[in-house]
Amino acid sequence: MTLLDGKIAIVTGAASGFGAQIARRYVEQGACVLLADINAEAASDLAATLGDRANAIRCDVANAADVAAAVRHCVEIFGVPDIVVNNAGLAYKSRPMLEVDEETFDRIFAVNVKSIYYMAQAVIPLMRERRSGVLLNIGSTAGIRPRPGTTWYNASKGAVNLLSKAMAVELAADGIRVNAICPVIGATAMLENFLGAPDTPDNRARFIATIPLGRLSEPDDVAQVAVFLASDGAAFLTGIEIPVDGGRTI
């Protein structure tokens, strides 16, 4: 038996990076997965490769109507979700905090934080009716050990890390578990934003030198943790933030 047999999941930001690999691993482990992403074409292309237990929908997670529509679509196609992975995230190119304009600030918090509010509004009532559910929020080591140049991004991920704990406390009585996964920087589309410089071997090496295990995170590092936390094997785990970071936050 696979770890997620018969489970239904929504993964946001599932067209690429961590989200895409989480979706792949969930299908591999027996789950039906709705891939929700603002890039509808890429999400649909990936879903097509994953077979009948995958489906895709365009979703801007910073839009309440889009999030509600994604949850309704999941219910119509597969059923009420057992698992939601709030993975969609946004970063900006590293620069001094006072050089970040208000529009960028607002978009960062809308995508990284308010999206979780919208998803909670849409999905928690369904999970409460069944008295079970798993919410996984993709935080960041930036919310644990912040670096200069990404102050407002760090703050948004600090909010994700803490709100995961607050949600866990409030929702435990409903049988809903909430945990945060906190990756260190990975070779995703956002890498250059974090580096604040071109993605060259030398610039990567300088950052990798701060990670004791000596490499960037890989999508599968995050996906494997997301599988475990969604499984029955993690039934007594809630309200934790797991750094997937090769020792970066030690």
Order of helices and strands: EHEHEHEHEHEHHHE
Assembly type: single chain
How many strands appear in the DSSP assignment? 7
CATH architecture identity:
3-Layer(aba) Sandwich
- Terminal residue distance: 36 Å
Can you walk me through this structure?
The chain is of the alpha/beta class and 250 residues long. It starts with 7 loop residues before the first strand and ends in a 6-residue tail after the last strand. The chain has a seven-stranded parallel beta sheet, with helices on both faces. It has eight helices and seven strands; from the N terminus they run E-H-E-H-E-H-E-H-E-H-E-H-H-H-E. Helix 3 (64-77) runs parallel beside helix 4 and helix 4 (102-130) packs parallel to helix 5. Helix content is 45%, strand content 15%. It has helices at residues 17-28, 40-50, 64-77, 102-130, 151-171, 191-195, 201-208, 219-230, and strands at residues 8-12, 32-37, 54-58, 83-86, 133-138, 176-183, 241-244. The mean pLDDT is 95. The chain has a single domain (8-233), classed as Rossmann fold (3-Layer(aba) Sandwich).
